[in-house]
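dumping this here before i forget
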Amino acid sequence: MNFLEGVRIALGAIRANLLRSFLTLLGIIIGTTAIISVIAVINGLNLYVAENVSNFGPNVYVITKFGIIQNHEDFLDALKRNRDLDLRDARAIESICPLAERVAVEVHSRQDVHRGAEEVLDVDIGGIDPGIIDIEPYEVDQGRNIDQAENDRSARVCFIGQDVAGTLFGTIDPIGKEMRIRNQDFTVVGTAKKKGSVFGQSRDNFVKIPVNTFQKMLGAHRSVNISVKGAAGVPLEESMDQVRMVLRARHHLRYSDADDFGIVTSEGVNDLWRNLTGMIFLVAVFVVGISLVVGGIVIMNIMLVSVIERTREIGVRKAIGARQRDIRLQFLVESVTLSCIGGGIGVAAAFVLSWVIRTYSPLPARFPVWAPLLSFGICAFIGIFFGLQPARKAARLSPIDALRSE
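structure:
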């Protein structure tokens, strides 16, 4: 007996008992659907974060007061140890570090903005060095970005996101019009292209103003974020090491002291996110694995019942020359076929579910192309593992006793 013949026999047995076969496969279908759907959601989230959250641009990193902190204890330590970063730190990096091609700062506050009776609450007000445009591009929809001359003279000009532009100005061209931040008038010089949202949070609810203007209006006590673009053709680690040495010297740290600042890179954010989703995936696999194990046990029980129901058939096969390994292979193939059919249905259901999640929810689920291979691999293992005992039992039946069976 060959493999294809075993598959044919298995399909015939499934057709003969459709309802029983479906109920047998239900655990495998549910388990496969769940695990592939979880993989699709996590895969989509990983790609989404890489494209929209941690995409700083080529050879770019950001120096912040805290950096990436993964637990509460580290945060408390950093809160005590780390000092605010200021414009002088950025200027020192710019003048001393040849491996820092561009250096610029950004500082943030949350404020309400107004224009006449219109108001936008809790807007991200960002004070920026105009040079940051060369590091983290703000794509222009209308008008232009803030320039260096405006920063030098602390001009009251602003570059606004689409949420602010739409709410305050509606269909009116906002360029050259005024809006108010903390009771001070600012002239709009440009609007940004729409960015959309990340996990339901809008990325268009912002106003950018010159950093000198920001500090005059809101004070210079806030820690700034320093964006650095490393020199082309130089490993990013070398540029970061050079910047780290400058900041440690400025902050008078001893050799044994830990850094009192943090450096954030795209890879660091992606690693943190992958660690988080990896833990979620392991928990999900454990929970879903219970369903797959239950499905495997049901398959084993059905195969044991099938052995009893087909005892006479087994006797006839042995009487006309079938060997033990032929009988064992037949029932193993049937078990694997049954399990893989359940896996195939589960993959199809997971594909549909992933589409529904991506279309009707904020979760960016992406069905991975390797998911069917993983599914069939798992299902084949389940079919072999749980089909082995029924196959052995069938192979060991005495042909004489089997032929006497009714």
